């Protein structure tokens, strides 16, 4: 009786799948020219692009270029990074940072994976877990931006 031993010449490797793949930015920080329209909008009318991004995120125009906006987006999609990294991205190259955020939003919209607000939790909650919200303030703000897309996001 002869037996043949199986010789392993190559170890199995983990293949990235949707279950274990880490989300990343869709484009790099310096990939401004992958979408010319976003690049030109940011270059020639930076406030317009900032208001468009803020509007996409259901935030006020003044928040479009903030570190908080970038951090909120990054944590929402589990993109690796830190607040310090977000701070230096916005501080050192605000145009590239804002363009990257807008390109990522556009790609996620095209893939139908973008949401501007977090989905509400489903199912009943115990009274101790009920969220407590403050009533909205009656403050109106009118943006002086040249973008008509900005107006719905800024006027409350």
Automatic annotation (TrEMBL):
Domain of life: Eukaryota
Pfam family, one: PLAC8
Classification via InterPro entries: PLAC_motif_containing (IPR006461)
PANTHER family, per the entry: DUF614 FAMILY PROTEIN-RELATED
Family: Belongs to the cornifelin family.
Protein name (record): Placenta associated 8
Name of encoding gene: PLAC8
């Amino acid at each position: 009786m002869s037996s043949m031993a199986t010789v392993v010449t190559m170890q199995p490797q983990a293949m990235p799948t949707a279950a274990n793949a880490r989300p990343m930015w869709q484009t790099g920080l310096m990939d401004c020219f992958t979408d010319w329209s976003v690049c030109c909008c940011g270059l020639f009318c930076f406030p317009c692009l900032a208001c468009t991004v803020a509007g996409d995120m259901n935030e006020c125009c003044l928040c479009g270029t903030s570190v908080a906006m970038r951090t909120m987006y990054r944590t929402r999609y589990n993109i690796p990074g830190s607040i310090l990294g977000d701070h230096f991205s916005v501080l050192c190259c605000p145009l590239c940072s804002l363009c990257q955020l807008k390109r990522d939003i556009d790609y996620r919209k095209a893939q139908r994976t973008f949401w501007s607000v977090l989905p509400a939790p489903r199912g009943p909650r115990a009274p101790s877990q009920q969220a407590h919200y403050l009533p909205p303030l009656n403050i109106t703000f009118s943006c002086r931006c040249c973008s008509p897309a900005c107006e719905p996001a800024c006027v409350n």
